[in-house]
Amino acid sequence: MSKSKGPEYPSFSLETDDRTDDERAQSRQVKKPARLVSALGMGIRCLEENKEDRDSKRFDIKRLFEAVSTGDVMKLEGLHQYLHQSMKKLSNTEYQSYGKNVLLKALLNLRNGRNNTIEYLLDISEKMGDIKELVNAAYTDSYYKGQTALHIAIERRSTYFVELLIKKGANVHAKACGKFFQLHDGPSFYFGELPLSLAACTNQPEVVDFLLENDYQRVDVRESDSLGNMVLHALVMLADNTPENTDFITSMYDHILTTAARLHPKWRLEDMENNQGLTTIKLAAKTGKIGLFKHMMHREFQERETRHLSRKFTEWVYGPVHSSLYDLASLDSYEKNSVLEIIVYSSDIPNRHEMLQIEPLNRLLEEKWDRFAARMFFLNFLVYLVYISVFTAVAYNRKKGTVRSLHYHNKLHYSSLAGPRAIKFGSMLKSFNLMRKHPSLDTLLIDGYSEILFFLQAIFFLASSVLYCCGREEYLGFFVLCLALSWVNLLYFSRGYRHMGIYSVMIQKMILSDILRFLFVYVTFLFGFSAAVVTLLMEPELPANNTEDLCSKPTFRNISHTIMELFKFTIGMGDLEFTEGYQYKEVFYMLLISYIVLTYILLLNMLIALMSRTVEKMSLESTSIWKLQRAITILDLERSLPRCLRTRLRSGVDKDLGTRTGEKDRRWCFRWPIYLHTVDVESMMRE
């Protein structure tokens, strides 16, 4: 019989014991606990070894992020097995930080446009069945909210990964709506939130074409962001009027417009409005993007399939002369919220003077002026001239003495009230006209110089009328102020004539800039020195029998009298005899000399120099400012017309331009013949 195998014991060896007797005794006392501690230690070491082994196979978010940042696939070896055994997926929230997952991290760490871990991760995710969740994961923090892997791939200019992500099911309409992607004063980049808008705004035509024409998931060009802006609106917002930027924006704009027209002929992208009710051309006008705006109005396509996208159509060419038709849709003030109204009435557009010089807007305004505005403006001038003539006559022949009583009634009384009543009606009409426009404060401060003066004129007259009816003599002060303003406002009608209008513009600019600053500094000096003089000069005691002179004669102890006397020194009419008999005359003379040097010599000469510089500067700008003022007048007059007359006096012609399918395409166009100083033979032959 074979003997059963007994238990195996750990091997041991004999060693020399060189300990002392005491050490041996102590060892025998703790012998059993020592064995227990040794066994526990061995168990702990085994657990630690097992834990280290498990940790080497465990993949947490930190390890994944570090691996994909280096782009080394070997660091991800065993990931699929670990996920399968632990029943986890790469799209789980434990592998995300504020929505940022391992795929987003990998795309942020491309080297020469590549990162080999991306394909590896997509392959694992596809096997685990969460590929769409992985590729469509988006940031959740407020700064980058909504940004997906497709946005990052486009921003990194990687066409390869853009195509790969779309093949794997990436959402082509995902919106990056975080604070960084919105318009604000801090660091930001607004591109319209959508992947197509991002590709267009970063000048990637290949990516744009793939998004528009791929076989997996095509974008809808009409899709808009949270502001209602589609891709063409986003391009308008990105324009900055520099030559390089304008070339890129116009090229990309036309490319998307023509491609969309080829794929979807019935779509009218340029008629789409954002949340502000602005189409692309209106948005370009509102934001002052003059380069893109000019391109839009002069855009002409020769190809038959895209000719309907043109806004300019060459009608005929003969030698150096040609005639063009400009589409007036959205341009003419005949329509509500037109481009012309936006430019004329928006005081926050910095270069609107230049934009009004672009054809056909300049010629359109000239035609409106010649067609009806000039006659209406001249008629208004005659009516206003009669108005202030009656006003002046009433003021000149007003009854002297006390305020006239309202208790007598006769024919003479009613006839005498006819003039004031007509004046009151005119003042109320001016007030109503200003309130009807509802101008903003900025508009009033920039363009409302004349409107403010007319409004003050009406307020002064109405205040005078109320005080007069109440039997108060104070009405006369408001009355004469209204009379003076009435004649000053006659300069408003100078804008109908070129040279007088430019002269009036210069006067307005000098009043609102140079003279206003001068008056602020001058009043500061005048009040300061007047207060010093009043404080300094003490009157000597007068005899008791001389009190009558003290009561009747004004002195420098009166602040208003002192201000008036110092003002006389400014204009060279001061009188030094007022200081006779006063103390501290030496100090007074020092103050007076300083005051004269600062005001009469320094401030007045600075004012003259500044006004001369303003005249030189305004000689270049005054013409465009005058044209803007006249444009405001033209549109105001047009608004006052009834609808039937506006239709009858509408500028332009109705033309059938046709389409590529032979259908009718009727548009209201503005015809403008022009002489070419330089004849382009090639373009003539092409025509």
From TrEMBL:
What Gene Ontology molecular-function terms does this entry list?
calcium channel activity
Checking InterPro entries in the record gives: Ankyrin_rpt, Ankyrin_rpt-contain_sf, Ion_trans_dom, TRPV, TrpV1-4
According to the UniProt entry, the coiled-coil residues are none
Query: Pfam families under this entry?
Result: Ank_2 (PF12796), Ion_trans (PF00520)
- Bilayer-spanning residue ranges: 372-396, 444-463, 475-494, 515-538, 587-610
Taxonomic superkingdom = Eukaryota
Q: Start-end of the ANK repeats?
A: 145-177
Keyword Protein biosynthesis among UniProt keywords: no
Location(s), subcellular: Cell membrane
Q: Which reaction does it catalyse?
A: Ca(2+)(in) = Ca(2+)(out)
| One CC-aspect GO term | plasma membrane
* Residue ranges constituting the Ion transport domain according to the UniProt record: 452-619
Which topology term describes how it sits in the membrane?
Multi-pass membrane protein
Reply yes or no: does the keyword Ribonucleoprotein apply: no
Q: Name one GO biological process term.
A: calcium ion import across plasma membrane
Q: Where is this region: Disordered?
A: 1-32
Question: Could you tell me which SUPFAM superfamilies the record lists for this protein?
Answer: Ankyrin repeat
Q: Which UniProt keywords apply?
A: ANK repeat, Calcium, Calcium channel, Calcium transport, Cell membrane, Ion channel, Ion transport, Membrane, Repeat, Transmembrane, Transmembrane helix, Transport
What PANTHER family does the database record attribute to this sequence?
Answer: TRANSIENT RECEPTOR POTENTIAL CATION CHANNEL SUBFAMILY V MEMBER 2, TRANSIENT RECEPTOR POTENTIAL ION CHANNEL PROTEIN
Q: What is this protein called?
A: Transient receptor potential cation channel, subfamily V, member 1
Native organism = Hucho hucho
